[in-house]
Amino acid sequence: MKYSFNDVTFMIPVRLDSIIRLENILAVVYQIKRLHGQILVYESSTYNNGILKRLLPKSGDIRYRFIQDYDPVFFRTNILNQMTEDTTTPFIAIWDADVIVSPKQLNDAIEALRNEKCDIAFPFNGNFMDTGNTLREMFVIKHNVDVLLRYQSYMNRLYQPNFVGGGIIVNKEKYKDSGKENEKFYGWGPEDMDRCQRWINMNYRFFRSDGPMFHLTHPRDDNGIIRSELHSNICKSNLQGSLYSSKEELSSMK
Prior knowledge:
Elements (H helix, E strand, L loop, with lengths): L7 E7 L4 H16 L3 E8 L5 H5 L6 E7 L7 H9 L6 E5 L3 E2 L2 H12 L5 E3 L5 E3 L1 H11 L2 H6 L5 E3 L8 E5 H6 L13 H11 L4 E3 L4 E3 L13 H13 L5 H6 L2
């Protein structure tokens, strides 16, 4: 079955910290491009080596921007807020550089948004499965989601069963009305839980597709882990604050 997601912009922020991360984002972009989705890639680093820009498919559906940043911490929430203002489609997907779901799951989620059955759509059932090295390599070479679905019993589940990160698709105006990303989360943290709590407080409607989301394994640097006990405590404090944050309060942080 052919799907078309040209009313969705997949926003993919990335900092290339390894060759594996580069392979992963190219595989993710390749899958979305085959589904005719709009793709916006923001790369952040100390200097632009031009590698990602040269390797991305040349297509009007793909836009790339480089952001020079000397900070070793990847300020993802800030970049996502910039990306949102650079989109024109009615729906946007907040998409990690290493996640894959089946085309049917994506279509089910987007159809729920198009038909106004929800405001927020998770294109997976909450199970976030880590591929491991062997299955990651198989996918990067073959680009076959069926292989991941077939061998998911060999994978480890990351995080809690009802995971709310990785990749989500939202009504853009609803997302902006909720305050977009909370920039108090500087670097890695539970910003996905933060936004979800705010959406619940605003009585937004949720949808989940039937099927897992796959995480293409990659090495983790300081931008993929809790860096210290202080960092952990700050994240917990910011998450608690999201129960009471308004759009105006979030806007005043910027």
